[in-house]
Design a protein that fits this description.
The protein has about 700 residues and is of the alpha/beta class. The protein has 22 helices and 33 strands. It has a nine-stranded mixed beta sheet with strand order 2-1-3-4-11-10-9-6-7, sandwiched between helices. Helix 17 crosses helix 18. Bound molecules: nicotinamide-adenine-dinucleotide.
Length: about 700
Amino acid sequence: MKKRIGISYTEILFKNYWNWFTHEDLKDEFELVELSFEKNNTSDIYQCDGFLLTGGVDVHPSLYQGANTYRNRPELFQLERDVFESKIYHYAQLNKLPVLGICRGMQLINVLEGGKLIQDLDNGNERHKKEQIDKEHVINVESNSFLNKVAGSDTGHVNSAHHQAIDPSSIGFNLKVNAYENDDERIIEGLEFADKTNKGFMLCVQWHPERIRQKENNPLSENLKKEFMAAIKDTNNKKLIIINPATEEIITELNEDSRESLIKKIDLLRSSQDAWSDESIVHRVEVIKRFSGLLEENTEQLAAILSTEVGKPLQQSRNEINGARNRIKWMVDNAEKFLSDEVMTTAEGLQEKISYEPLGVVCNISAWNYPWLVGVNVFVPALLAGNAVMYKPSEYAALTGLEIERLLKKAGVPENIFHIAIGGKETGEILLQLDFDGYFFTGSFNTGKHIYETVAYKMVPCQLELGGKDPLYVCDDVKDINAVAVATADGAFYNNGQSCCAVERIYVHEKIYDKYIDAFIKEVRSWKTGLPGEEAVYIGPLTRKMQLDLLEEQVKDAIDKGAKLLTGGKRVNRKGNFFEPTVFTNVSHRMLLMREESFGPVIGIMKVKDDAEALQLMRDTEYGLTASVYSDSKQRAEKILKQLNTGTGYWNCCDRVSAAVPWSGRKHSGIGSTLSHHGLRVFTKPKAWHLKTS
Ligand code: NAD
């Protein structure tokens, strides 16, 4: 596996930095990655093992409270570049990854660590400012510095091309000067960490080692590069490999978070949460509205990323992003109403009211099947309520997780109010050990139970949205059997059956059974299976390869126990995690397929003689997420649904979620609820106020 060196992009002279690393340097061990503020390719930052922050236009003065005008002020600053590169620097520090800061790169690092810049060197400028050919001068390297060790000398020749410099009276936190210009002005020529305990490699220089004359023979170029590369070689971040389920090709590799980086992140979240909760709800609503606007603007790009990593057909990815925006709309429209103080009683001399205080720093461990939807259910109301959030996307939807982070920050969520945790089960386990004020989990029953048990001793809220084995009953009085068959087949197979509320068992009244089955099978056979990006594809690959084994086991078990296979039943003979849409009849509750969550394109349909039998079968499950009844009579449907211990009941519809009503599971389907006003207030602690005015 090659180590990746991320080089921050700048239109001017970028090639010099790129070409500084020769074929001989890179061999088969390293590759270069362009990190471009113009492309805002944040997710590429997470692939890199070390970073070079390059030279270029002055850092925006607002970042260090500098004056807006000065002699050599550029016509245009590049604030977007500053923001993008600060993301790189913070990421490197959180993960102890090597950083080399050159010229402006050094100045930015000083600013990010709280230092300031001399905005114009005035007279000194003549000696340093950028011209056709770099000027050269001598520097003195501090004897006890890391730079001295690297250069192997107390002095050396360097080049100059700058008009700004590090302000010696305002050096950033934990930085120290390692080199000065050899003259009276003593311009600062380099910085490094003062206390290097628990820090990665970091060297900053004011000169340009990438283009200095005879750079191969100058230790202040060549040694710098070699040490930087050696430090990168020494990094040992665990990698999360992201695979395209449709092609089985590796999309990319991301650095996983370590225990240390997660501890740093939770500390940062904790230190910033008060300020966020002190902001008005109106402000937080505005930020989230901007986030929703960004989803709209970027729908195509986000849908493409989602389809590539989870395999869902492109149109279904678009639908998911639009669905997330609809949910956000309800939340922002209602946040003020349900999160503001509520006066409950006003009597003479007394007021009693409730205020809704944020929980604090909450942890959201999420699933991959609808990363936008299930994510939005949690992190949006949590942020609206004033919490800071550690969001762990599923390891199968990490790229979408990175987009979520990128766009929340772009919308104005402050830097340390939302952090992402990259990794799988082990990363999740670390989060369970850290000190959160609440855990909000979406995923399988087994993981949910484990999380509930593990965090119980903390005495903080723990909410679980888990799996299901959702039943659907078609009564004999439905008028349009064909339409019902088409709608219910969609309820079972949309997103390849990988929905928590997918229809997982179907019961059909014997009077309409044959007609229903014919229409159902006709519909299923009409679907096109293919790559997510292909036109009109309805069935894509499954997201996880291992689910194919589970489906095969359910199919075999059903056949062994006497089920009749009407269509499908096996993997599709092609590359990728494809499984044929599969329909069984003659099924019974002895079969795995009617008891355990399939989470794939497999359904069992059972004939029943009346409502009583249907009800008894629908109740026969450990899960309790949703249930659905199709009937011409609302009364008949409601009577059945009332007797089912599920969080949601559907009449003449299925597999749908609305932000206006609670989303909750019972029994093995979970604890607590998201969405609706319950789902806003669940991220708060109600405080009772007894206010005696006399
Ligand atoms: P999963 O339980 O395998 O993983 C969910 C998350 O938990 C992932 O981020 C994973 O990395 C993390 N995790 C795994 N082991 C962990 C551990 N020991 N400690 C801490 N974290 C751990 O579930 P999945 O495959 O991602 O999602 C599919 C399941 O989610 C299905 O059962 C589905 O029904 C359910 N789901 C439910 C809802 C709902 O709203 N009720 C919504 C979507 C999905």
